[in-house]
């Protein structure tokens, strides 16, 4: 028995150049589309009658971009979702994920160039639209923001068992590669400003927090977004604990005054939570 | 309000060498552990009182391996899950994911070497244990098996809209990087033999199937596993359609008799489904 | 006959926190060390007598950082190179490569935080020191700067053969992931300021250039660095041509006024050159 | 002054299906082409007159494959090199690199399927052709063969300085991800058989060697290839030392009888050498 199925197209790469008089605008999006609906016969019988090809999904990304233009990734995701819901009666739910590569303008001696760009990063902006026959949810996110705080971070007083060797500390480095996704109450907001506000709030709270653990700081960051930004209704944060270990220099007759660390890739702690209003 | 939370340790790398008289056995595992339970105070108040450090989770992997040895990844995952459930009253559910890097023996003139190994791949074997206070589920999987069939693969008769340009075909290359995960009815089976049986069945059905689409073949593969292997109760398959496009050689006065293709990485179709008994 | 050999340690990850009164400074370096010298017996006879372990190279990175501190990556590379040359008579040449992950400060309502950081990127700063018994060369570089220009880029008038199908164009997108390395005339410069000057010059010239090809722009960029920055004696640039292809929308009754592109990862052009004074 | 330049096309992905009566043959190649020659005007003046577009290089890969078929990657590289040397008078040297993804047949109940394939790996086969006006060199290689030996591997008696903390050992795990490239004396050999012979010899010698260090084993492996395979004239080996560290279990009251290791990704030793006849 087929209990769940989905199909779609991933990694559709779209770059749009808007050619203004004196300056161009650049959008760099990677789109993924995912259909769920009454498509069981295509699985069980090989009957493709109701199956919109994923190649058509790809074409639709380019066609809608050309016909209507792309501004905010959330709005483009909404337009795609509506288009697919309208044209596919078998479709029950569609999900559109958009990742935006952020570009800045290259600076020259007399101001920014109007038609030359440099990629910002390493973090990316994401948008997610989930549309059904009744409801449509619009969300946004940020991926791979690498952040580190070198003070106000402790971890102590934890549970100990026979395999516990970790010492508690009041002063450790806390580093993570933050990924957060959140949902908006409405589609009638300035998505670009909202995204910047959430990003700023997340980083600001990370920096100001008196941290007792990654869990503690993660919660404070999510809380701050819900407190300060009223049109966010829920937020999920994933924060790998990218351990920075103080190097033991005693065999060299040197002291490590909490200044020299080895950054490690693995293993890593993985902390996640979802907060709702 | 905190509606969901989890924490754990990922990418714990364990290599075990069993030193027999004439030959060694090698196990190469990457373990991830994930706790869910009554840990809200650690998030909301920074109270670490009930928090087992993720560093201890890592230590436990090595300690249990040393104390009891590792055989099948499923069994090792079960042992870890039970250990954590026993020692952590706040823990409601634990998930242990194990990825096994497969190694073969290096062949010499007079048979295989007893203590030299070469990595097999690119696919990896996975195991997943999900334990709660009432039930424990054991599953297994395979990741990144790249498979391709050059005959008996069609895609035609699909839905067309104003953005559809794809032509139907009775003869295309079908290539995917299969990832499958499945659940076992019981923990009392030979996990190694079971894994090989599922792997063989998936590949065999992929090869023998008269494919009308990726969906169609994915379903047939899952169906074959449920039909032939009675201790599998559910299986989920994810099959990206890694498109191979025939190259148009007409401008060079050459004909492409369906022999010359460009393999593409993006965009790709993404097909998935879950079948249960 | 052994005609060439080298050994060393790669990916030594060092993070240094300098703890000032009101603010911390962060350095994030990845170091690679490579020895060449009279080490043939270690290869041919397994005689390790003169072999400094690569583990010691790693320790040296942390010990020198702790003892003397790290400022510019070039200076740290020089210190490491001199240390190894002094202590290893068999060593003929040592190469130290340093990659710096760049971090900025997190901004708060009342100015930047003194002890919280966010990673800048995606490009990284590199330094390379090559020391011998007679000469020492210090160089620097930049990796993976993604840049794109949407005007003033042409490619036409090229050679055509029987397999050429490309049309010439006066207006295409030009995008690359720039990697450049250069050599300094002396070690007595402000390496941080120099690096910023070269980076700015490369981007500025990329943006302002009337491009007839990637080759043409690459040369202009290198030329500009040699023209404007007198202590750079040589520069090598590698610029993959990351093709952005206009999407043909004619089947949808839509016109593409050079606005809608598909960004491609492969295949890509690869252009490189070295300029010296 | 422009002292060095090169341009070409990388990651041209070609899949060829030869459709025999009862079975198909599959070739999966990734090709890179690199031109060096008298192309300075294209850099300095933007004069593209003599520049064969990299797009044409890509087309040529598909056209030659269609016209003449692909068998061994070395032979296909030679054909491409000759084609480009013949048609481009400004070309002084061309390099063609071919990477072959290896596929095996999927096994069924009654023998292998004729038209279904599964990727072998993780290692890949490579070929490299370097052609000039006078000489042409053909070489081959293997990339990313992960090999490990759990006995007959020591490292002791090395140089010690003030930062050396490593203990010597007679019994350690030795693991590497081998990459080797070699050159053939002639183009008149069975490239497929030669590649298998070199691969077998490298692995066999790795396994049988009484290792005093990575350097020692690397040399023995290169030596064995030159000793046993007379048409190989030179070989280069690169062997990162992928450290496997015994886990200290003493705090848990457990002994580690050299059985439990943590596999590490970084830092790693890097050992390389070239042997010629």
Q: What order do the SSEs of chain A take from the amino end to the carboxyl end, as H and E?
A: EEHHHEEEEEEHHEEEE
Question: Spans of chain A of 5+ residues with little confidence (pLDDT < 50)?
Answer: none
Oligomer state of the chains in this structure:
homotetramer
Task: Please give the count of helices of chain A.
Answer: 5
Any idea how many domains of chain A? 2
Corresponding CATH architecture of the largest domain in chain A: Roll
What's the arrangement of strands in the largest beta sheet of chain A?
Answer: 1-2-3-6-7-8-9-12
Notable features of this structure?
homotetramer, 277 residues, alpha+beta, Urate Oxidase, two-stranded antiparallel sheet, 5 helices
Report on the architecture of this protein.
- The structure is a homotetramer of 277-residue chains.
- With 277 residues, chain A is an alpha+beta fold.
- Chain A folds into 2 domains: 7-134, Urate Oxidase (Roll); 143-276, Urate Oxidase (Roll).
- Helices cover 25% and strands 42% of the residues of chain A.
- Chain A has 5 helices and 12 strands.
- Chain A has helices at 40-44, 54-68, 73-87, 191-208, 214-228; strands at 2-19, 24-37, 91-100, 103-108, 111-119, 124-132, 136-149, 174-184, 232-241, 244-246, 260-263, 268-276.
- In chain A, the strands form 3 sheets. In chain A, strands 1-2-3-6-7-8-9-12 form an 8-stranded antiparallel sheet, with helices on one face. Chain A has a two-stranded antiparallel ribbon with strand order 4-5.
- In chain A, strand 4 (103-108) and strand 5 form a beta hairpin.
- In chain A, helix 4 (191-208) packs antiparallel against helix 5.
- The radius of gyration of chain A is 23 Å and the shape is globular.
- Chains A and B meet through strand 1, helix 1, helix 2, helix 5 and strand 9 of A and strand 1, helix 1, helix 2, helix 5 and strand 9 of B.
């Amino acid at each position: 028995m087929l209990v769940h199925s989905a199909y779609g197209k991933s990694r559709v790469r779209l770059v749009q150049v808007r050619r203004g008089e004196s300056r161009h605008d650049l959008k760099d999006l990677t789109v993924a589309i995912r259909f769920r609906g009454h498509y069981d016969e295509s699985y069980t019988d090989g009957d493709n009658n109701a199956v919109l090809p994923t190649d058509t999904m790809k074409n639709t990304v380019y066609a809608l971009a050309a016909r209507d233009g792309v501004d905010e990734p959330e709005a483009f995701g909404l337009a795609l979702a509506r288009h697919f819901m309208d044209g596919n009666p078998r479709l029950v739910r569609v999900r559109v994920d958009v990742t935006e590569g952020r570009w800045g303008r290259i600076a020259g001696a007399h101001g920014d160039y109007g038609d030359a760009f440099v990629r910002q990063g390493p973090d990316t902006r994401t948008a997610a639209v989930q549309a059904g026959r009744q409801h449509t949810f619009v969300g946004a996110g940020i991926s791979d923001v690498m952040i580190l705080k070198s003070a106000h971070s402790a971890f102590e007083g934890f549970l100990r068992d026979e395999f516990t060797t970790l010492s508690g500390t009041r002063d450790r480095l806390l580093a993570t590669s933050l990924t957060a996704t959140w949902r908006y109450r409405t589609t009638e907001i300035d998505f670009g400003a909202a995204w910047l506000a959430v990003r700023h709030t997340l980083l600001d709270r990370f920096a100001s927090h008196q941290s007792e653990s990654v869990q503690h700081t993660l919660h404070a960051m999510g809380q701050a977004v819900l407190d300060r930004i009223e049109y966010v209704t829920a937020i999920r944060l994933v924060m790998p604990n990218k351990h920075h270990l103080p190097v033991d220099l005693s065999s060299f007759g040197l002291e490590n005054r909490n200044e020299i660390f080895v950054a490690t890739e693995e293993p890593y702690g993985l902390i996640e939570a979802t907060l709702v209003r």
